[in-house]
Amino acid sequence: MRSTPSTCAICGTTLEEGAAVSSPIYPFCSVRCKQIDLLRWCDGRYTVVNDMDPDLLLELGERMGDQDESPA
Ligand SMILES: [Zn+2]
């Protein structure tokens, strides 16, 4: 079944076909982008910023990942 290609809600990377149904992190391209989105919601400071530096967002995502390493 083919579906229209979609893009990551954070960085705009094109997602794989069928990501909407096959990816647990849809609509994001990676766990990192998902964390960035969560971080935006968790921290009110970022909800008002529309054009944050992508590098800064990635950095924040990495930091969050360090703190939230769940056992596999
Ligand atoms: Zn992304």
UniProtKB/TrEMBL annotation:
It comes from the Bacteria. Belongs to the DNA gyrase inhibitor YacG family. Keywords: Metal-binding, Zinc. The lineage of its organism: Bacteria, Pseudomonadati, Planctomycetota, Planctomycetia, Planctomycetales. Binds 1 zinc ion. GO terms for molecular function: DNA topoisomerase type II (double strand cut, ATP-hydrolyzing) inhibitor activity; zinc ion binding. Its cofactor is Zn(2+). This is DNA gyrase inhibitor YacG. Interacts with GyrB. Inhibits all the catalytic activities of DNA gyrase by preventing its interaction with DNA. Acts by binding directly to the C-terminal domain of GyrB, which probably disrupts DNA binding by the gyrase. It holds the Pfam family YacG. InterPro entries: DNA_gyrase_inhibitor_YacG, Znf_NHR/GATA.
